[in-house]
């Protein structure tokens, strides 16, 4: 029979440090009012005894759960297959871990999932929410608003980030798309096609708008809708070759789409970049480096976006409840720059 070793208590820590139980409680819960020499004695006793605070009791004192809901508005088959999500989650996880917060991952695929997530958020289990891959008219923002949770969105939601306290972190999707198309024009390409991303997401719309900013009078037959997947890149590329076999360049809305397009071009005997130049978006390594040929693409800092989302949320949670919103303490939305990374495909 295994003997259970009792967990160290606040009283045991207080006895080891030679202070009162109340002093230990203030130090453990991060409260002010304890002189540094005493606080150091408490921290040393905590380490020596291996004391772990009772989270439920600590939450009663701090009003914090030290847990953040990370909500991805996609089915699990998409989330675990697309490296974009892994990279953004890694950035979020690193930042939350550095601040001793737990990540609670929630995925939504249908209306039942939305209802489940809404109930969980309203139940007071987490301190805030990080949400990304939203689709236009998604009910999640309203569910979160009802729950009253501080929230940061990854990507511009289908609303004005300057209204109603909406905070988001995004990349310059429109500007990056313009850079991609201008690069193709600089190579002398004139029959430039675009395979879009999902047009029920603002990133897909913004990249299409950036393409049209540069190619104002483009042939509608040179634009085919995709959904950010390799399969949609293959389907769209076949459609484009059937419509406009004379095309000489493709701007794909992301690297997975571009990888699918490259496979179809190779099947049809089109040399890249000699016959058709291809540019993607994301700089999703190792995809962009392992396509044949390696992919010229627009780089966005996906992991950095995740870290910044978490940082803004934690900063908001640490903001004093009496802080005035006009003092600049409130977090504001951030749009990160993109850069063109040239490789062999264009």
Blueprint (SSEs and pairs):
Elements: H1 10-17, H2 21-28, H3 36-49, H4 55-62, E1 67-72, H5 76-79, H6 83-98, E2 102-107, H7 111-122, E3 128-132, H8 140-147, E4 151-154, E5 168-171, H9 173-186, E6 192-195, H10 202-214, E7 223-224, H11 230-243, E8 249-252, H12 255-267, E9 277-282, H13 287-290, E10 296-299, H14 302-318, E11 334-336, E12 339-341
Describe this structure in words.
The chain is α/β, with parallel strands linked by helices and 346 residues long. Helices cover 44% and strands 15% of the residues. Strands 2-1-3-4-5-11 form a six-stranded parallel β-sheet, with helices on both faces. Strands 7-6-8-9-10-12 form a six-stranded mixed β-sheet, with helices on both faces. Helix 2 (21-28) crosses helix 3 (36-49). It starts with 9 loop residues before the first helix and ends in a 5-residue tail after the last strand.
